Amino acid sequence: MRGFYIGRYQPFHDGHRHMVEEIAGEVDELVLGIGSAGDSHTTRNPFTAGERVMMVTKAVEHLDVTTYVVPIEDLDRNSVWVSHVQSMTPRFDVAYSNNPLVVRLFEEAGVEVRGSPMFRRDVLEGTELRERMIHGHDWEELVPETVIDVIEEVDGVERIRRIAETDTNGEPPTDA
Ligand SMILES: Nc1ncnc2c1ncn2[C@@H]1O[C@H](COP(=O)(O)OP(=O)(O)OP(=O)(O)O)[C@@H](O)[C@H]1O
Ligand SMILES: NC(=O)c1ccc[n+]([C@@H]2O[C@H](COP(=O)(O)O)[C@@H](O)[C@H]2O)c1
């Protein structure tokens, strides 16, 4: 059986890792969708699709399942989003998500959806991690070691801090 799990992974953190490890116990193969693939260089979406491909690929390489990492750009039309996803990915039998819109769109399209309880959601949230990076607080303990390496390689903390100086709405800075 093949599963599908999509997230923005800005950045990939230990909540995502926990979910992937649980999914790996239920499927033979796993397709990981990098959502909002066209977005980068904003405080909400600081990392490029390629950078997130590196984070996710390295974070799951210890798992005993074959994984495929596929970037997926957003569409303006929710009603055809599931078809868009299916057009970009290996065929899958079940979609995993805790995002209510994603769950609804897959269910309406007749795809089985499974969720999971949130894991340490007080700290394991992308928004919390990005805030910590911007304000110089510890964030490294909340992500896989391999994700720290990728963020260091691309000088990601410096990037998000610089963007945050001019970007207060999640929009790209216009004057930089
Ligand atoms: N701590 C967690 N435990 C379990 N699932 C999680 C956790 N954090 C996120 N998820 C789930 O992982 C998927 C992808 O999440 P996403 O990439 O949006 O992360 P996020 O932490 O919610 O980020 P942000 O705060 O940037 O929106 C969603 O289905 C989300 O509900
Ligand atoms: N119409 C669309 O493009 C559409 C609809 C539903 C989800 N998505 C994307 O799927 C991903 C879902 O991931 P999260 O659970 O991390 O929000 C996001 O990147 C989101 O933008 C896109």
What would the keywords be for this entry?
176 residues, alpha/beta, binds beta-nicotinamide ribose monophosphate, binds adenosine-5'-triphosphate, Rossmann fold
Structure description:
The chain has 176 residues and is α/β, with parallel strands linked by helices. It has a single domain (2-166), classed as Rossmann fold (3-Layer(aba) Sandwich). Helices cover 40% and strands 14% of the residues. The chain has helices at residues 14-24, 49-60, 81-88, 100-108, 126-135, 145-153, 156-166, and strands spanning 2-7, 29-34, 66-71, 94-96, 112-114. The longest helix is centred in the N-terminal third of the chain and has 12 residues, at 49-60. The structure holds adenosine-5'-triphosphate and beta-nicotinamide ribose monophosphate. Adenosine-5'-triphosphate binds next to helix 1 and helix 5. Residues 4-132 form the Cytidyltransferase-like domain. Pfam families: CTP_transf_like. This is Nicotinamide-nucleotide adenylyltransferase.
